[in-house]
Amino acid sequence: MKHRDRFLTVAFLVLALMIGVGLLGQLQRSSDTNTALQSKLNDREMTLHQMLLDKDRLMCEKAELEKQLISTRMTEGVVSWYGDREHGRLTANGERFDRYSFTIASRTLPFGTLVMVENLETGKFAPAIVNDRGPYIDGRIADLSEALALKLGFHEQGLVMARVYEVRKTT
Fold first, then answer.
1. DSSP string for 1-59
2. Domain that holds residue 56
3. Could you count the other beta carbons within 10 Å of the beta carbon of residue 149?
4. pLDDT for res 163
5. Same domain, 63 and 110
6. Contacts 24+ apart (CB under 8 A), 5-10
7. Are 170 and 113 within 8 A, CB to CB?
8. What CA–CA distance (Å, rounded) separates 70 from 46?
9. What does the pLDDT look like over 51-97, one tens digit per residue?
10. How far is CA 40 from CA 5, 44, 47, 95, 146, in A?
């Protein structure tokens, strides 16, 4: 059975090669086809060139954002999440807590501050808005909404080492 499978594989490859050679011969004989292929190749090169330019632009934007984050206030420590029991209750700023939104409770950051939270174990990060006070357990720097914990990948653990970057204060 193995010999038959090898034979079929070799036969298929030879057939594919013959078809490929035949097509190449036809392509070489047809100057119109060559022109069309060259045009497609040029289009692909332009697309690739544009993608590289976009990548360079995005890398510059990322570097600028990293500089901004480095120059802003940053806190590192243990964060936890809260959700089910508090869902729908009033937060310290008067809003109703929504476990499905990206919000954070902080003892020190002003309400409405946009922050970026980074899970130090996974490298995942997400934005959030400060809308509550807490946590009320020593050793923790923030309580995150359940949706944010899911996004950052520590929902099952409950606690994780994280960095909280103050991006900007909203007024």
1. -HHHHHHHHHHHHHHHHHHHHHHHHHHHH-HHHHHHHHHHHHHHHHHHHHHHHHHHHHH
2. 2-67
3. 26
4. 94
5. no
6. none
7. yes
8. 36
9. 667 767 777 766 676 666 555 688 899 999 998 788 889 999 999 99
10. 38, 6, 10, 56, 49
Beta-bridge partner residues of 118? 125, 163
Token pair of 164, please? 């909280």
Q: Which residues contact 48 (CB under 8 A, 6 or more apart)?
A: none
Say yes or no: 89 and 158 in one domain.
Answer: yes
The Cα 104–Cα 107 span in angstroms is 10
Q: Do 40 and 103 lie in a common domain? A: no
Mean pLDDT score, 120-137 = 92
What's residue 167's pLDDT?
85
Query: Which of 147, 141, 171 minimizes the C-alpha distance to 159?
Result: 141
Scanning the structure block, which residue is given the tokens 């030879």?
Answer: 14
pLDDT digits (tens, 9 = 90+) for 61-72: 666 766 665 556
**Whether the predicted pLDDT of 46 surpasses 70:** no
Say if residue 146 is in the same domain as residue 90: yes
Count up the domains in the chain and report the number. 2
Q: Which of 34, 67, 100 is the last residue of a domain?
A: 67
